[in-house]
Design goal:
This protein has about 270 residues and is an alpha+beta fold. The chain has five helices and 14 strands. The strands form three sheets. A six-stranded mixed β-sheet has the order 3-4-2-1-14-13. A six-stranded mixed β-sheet has the order 5-6-7-8-12-9. The structure holds one DNA strand of 18 nucleotides.
DNA sequence: ATGTCAGACAACGTCTGA
């Protein structure tokens, strides 16, 4: 089974590249982030023509996650346990955003997550990021609490955290920035402590498989990137991984996202439910 | 080969978020 995650930076703007990639990479399950469209506006017919069902958690111009599957989608869960909200411009009260959803596809439990960016250290969005990660940890703990299910489990998505300095093209440049601070890395460590492992993709071209390169200043051709899109797997999932890589070809050419897909091949083992 | 891009507004440029 092939499972992937991709921050597409608008599923509408990315539709030609998305369809091309689905047809060539043939994932069984694809977790999407930043779909940037309401649930009703998702291009269902286009992905269905390639054999995929879609479950979508989106409200409009920002954020939004989805799960595409050609092996079924069951037990869809939208949002986190006690998910914190953010006070959007023009809003009177903080409200949860569309950043996380879980689904069971072909006997594998996946969560597609888009962790808040944080904007800058000390910004209200940074505190929101840490709070949101704590709620993600609570949700993972809830999902992994033994209930008789033996499904492989993974959280896939854009974490907006580089796990180590090696996951940033120039750590010194990011010293005062979000994505690398001890607070963010501690929140990631706390999440992993719930029973997950960072599935490291195999390098294809460079020493470290980055997943994101800014659109500006020729960042991609210079490989000025970061590894911030992660697959965090429980032991049942991790032990079934036969390959993992970043499809950097999807970052080439015109009309690309600023992120590349992370692809994992999995032998899910005997179907035990 | 690539020196931002996408969405929404009231627009046909300018703002915001990333």
């Amino acid at each position: 089974m092939r499972i992937a995650t991709w921050n597409v930076n608008s599923v509408v703007a990315r539709l030609p590249r998305l369809l091309e990639w689905l047809a060539s990479a043939e994932p069984d399950v694809l977790c999407l982030q930043e779909v940037k469209c309401a649930r009703d506006a998702f291009p269902y017919e286009e992905v269905e023509a390639l054999g995929y069902e879609a479950a979508v958690h989106g409200a409009g111009r920002w954020n939004g996650v989805a799960v595409l599957s050609r092996v079924g989608i069951d037990d869809v869960r939208l949002g986190l346990v006690d998910e914190p909200g953010f006070l959007a411009d023009g809003a009177l009260l903080p409200a949860p955003e569309q950043r996380a959803m879980g689904a069971t596809c072909g006997g594998v439990r996946v969560w597609s997550v888009y962790v808040p960016n944080g904007r800058s250290v000390g910004h209200a969005h940074y505190a929101y990021k840490l709070d949101w990660l704590a709620a993600l940890r609570a949700t993972v703990t809830d999902e992994l609490t033994p209930t008789g299910s033996t499904s492989p489990f993974a959280v896939l998505g854009d974490f907006n955290i580089a796990p180590t300095d090696a996951d940033v093209w120039d750590a010194d440049l990011f010293r005062e920035s979000t994505h690398v601070t001890p607070g963010e890395r501690q929140a990631l460590a706390d999440l992993l402590a719930a029973g997950l492992t960072d599935v490291m993709p195999r390098p294809l071209k460079h020493a470290v498989p980055f997943t994101y390169w800014d659109y500006r200043q020729l960042a991609f051709p210079h490989n000025h990137g970061m590894r911030i899109d992660l697959v965090l797997a429980d032991e049942r999932f991790r032990s079934g991984v036969t390959d993992a890589y970043v499809d950097r070809n999807a970052r080439k050419g015109k009309g690309t996202s600023d992120h590349a897909p992370v692809v994992v091949d999995l032998d899910p083992g005997p179907a035990t439910g």
